Amino acid sequence: MDEKALEKFDPTVEKLTAMVKVSAKISATDLEDPKQLAVVKENRIELKRARVQIEKTGKSLREEAIAFQRAVISKEKELIAIIEPEEDRLAAIEDEAKALTTRKMRLTQLPIRKERLSDITHKYGVEDEALLGMDEAEFEACFNSCVAYSNEREREIAEEAARAAQERIEQANEAKRKEQEAKDAELREREEKVGLAPLKWRGIVSADRAFFELCGAEVVERGMAPNGVVEAVDVAGNVACRVGAGEEGGSPDQLGFQRLEERLDHGVVVAVALA
């Protein structure tokens, strides 16, 4: 369709403009006057007929336009189908040549890319073909991803090492604690079997050989049951009279690790008579 098809519209612009000018002069000064109302109605109906005719013409032209549009689309597809396969073939040749040039360029960059990746401590494997298939932006994204992965692995390894060290410390402390508990238990058991060492005060002798017996001992809270009854020993009474002070022997059946009061040291202190 072309502009000539638009000439089918009737009435034309000129006719419609003239009708509107005539209608614009019509008015009703008395709304109860039948003649005035009849003139208004007649001109309105004339305008309505013109509008209806325009709508019919437009609908007809649209249908023709739609049919023409479909025909245009069909013809377009038919013509494109003739040349498109050959165009695609030539484009594929160009793409293949471009890909070959790009691959050669990336082959020269491959050692550099692999060296950059090798400097990363922890990385997931990237095949050479995958590297060759990456442009600069894609490789940088891959490299940054490898760096992030390596940093995360370093953090995880450090945390694992710290946890292992802490566990070793805790295990060592637990072993020391158990060892100390065992030693404490052994010491308590020995104390319960042996008891506390007795302390004996032998006594003192004055210058005129008057004897003052002082005898005492600590209370043993725990110990072994005695094998028998031992008679009391009067250290001062069972020793021969002497001119001077002398050192007394040890108590009967005294064990090596039992001691008397260190201040007396198995001795007798001579009292000085008051004047």
Q: Give the strand order of the largest sheet, numbering strands 1, 2, ... along the chain.
A: 2-1-3
Secondary structure tally: strands = 3
Shape summary: elongated
Helix/strand-derived category reads mainly alpha
Give the ordered list of helices and strands.
HHHHEEE
Q: What is the helical fraction, as a range of percent?
A: 55-70%
- The biggest beta sheet, please? 3 strands, mixed
Total helical segments: 4
Poorly predicted spans: 196-202
Mean pLDDT over the residues: 79
Integer count of domains: 3
What distance lies between the first and last C-alpha atoms, to the nearest angstrom? 161 Å
Proportion of residues in β-strands: under 5%
Radius of gyration: 64 Å
Summary?
The protein is an all-alpha fold. Helices cover 59% and strands 3% of the residues.
Question: How are the SSEs placed, and which strands pair?
Answer:
Elements: H1 13-24, H2 34-118, H3 128-132, H4 136-194, E1 204-206, E2 211-212, E3 269-271
Parallel strand pairs: 1-3
Antiparallel strand pairs: 1-2
Helix pairs in contact: 1-2
Description:
The protein has 275 residues and is mostly helical. The chain folds into 3 domains: 113 residues; 73 residues; 81 residues, no CATH class. Helix content is 59%, strand content 3%. It has 4 helices and 3 strands; from the N terminus they run H-H-H-H-E-E-E. A hairpin with a 4-residue loop joins strand 1 and strand 2. About 3% of the residues have low confidence.
